[in-house]
From TrEMBL:
Pfam families: FAM192A_Fyv6_N (PF10187)
Organism: Setaria digitata
Main location: nucleus
Domain FAM192A/Fyv6 N-terminal: 5-104
Keyword annotations from UniProtKB, A to Z: Nucleus
InterPro entries assigned: FAM192A, FAM192A/Fyv6_N
Organism phylogeny: Eukaryota, Metazoa, Ecdysozoa, Nematoda, Chromadorea
UniProt-annotated stretches for the region Disordered: 1-44, 111-136
Name of the protein described by the UniProt record: FAM192A/Fyv6 N-terminal domain-containing protein
GO CC entries: nucleus
Length: 151
């Protein structure tokens, strides 16, 4: 119980120590004596209530924007749907244009292949038909028509 009470002598010693520390860190334009510590004489309940209220206010400030959710009004909905329709039309036009270009490329390539593969009269030869009819193996005929892919 004696630990809770402080004698006048101990208070004076603590004050002298603080004054010596003040002299070490004091600047020329600071006062000679160390400023007195502010003593809060309010009851503990009031001090704790102030701290609790301050923390509650900070919490509410942080979470204030979370509670500000609102729906879209009619004008905003109309605008956003218009933007969506516009983008859909642009995408559709782009797809149509790509398809048209691809079909044009396919047609040009087909024409080029057709021109290259047209047999000329000089290339046409008649195979001499020998009088003997060969009996061919059906399996061999099927394999001759097969195309082997390069791997």
């Amino acid at each position: 119980m004696a630990d809770r009470f402080v004698s006048e002598k101990e208070l004076d010693e603590a004050k002298k120590r603080r004054q010596e520390e003040w002299e070490k860190v004091r600047k020329p334009n600071d006062p000679e004596e160390m400023p007195k510590e502010e003593v809060d004489n309010r009851p503990l309940y009031d001090r704790l209530k102030e701290v609790r209220d301050r923390k509650q206010a900070e919490y509410e400030e942080e979470h204030r924007f979370r509670n500000m959710v609102r729906g879209l009004d009619a004008d905003e909905c109309d605008f956003l749907s218009g933007v969506e329709i516009f983008k859909a039309k642009q995408d559709l036009e782009k797809i149509k244009e790509e398809k048209a270009l691809l079909s044009e490329i396919d047609r040009a390539q087909a024409r080029k292949n057709a021109e290259e593969n047209v047999p000329s009269v000089s290339n046409l030869r008649v195979k001499p038909n020998s009088g003997i009819a060969h009996k061919e193996n059906k399996q061999a005929a099927i394999l001759r028509m097969a195309v082997k892919r390069k791997t």
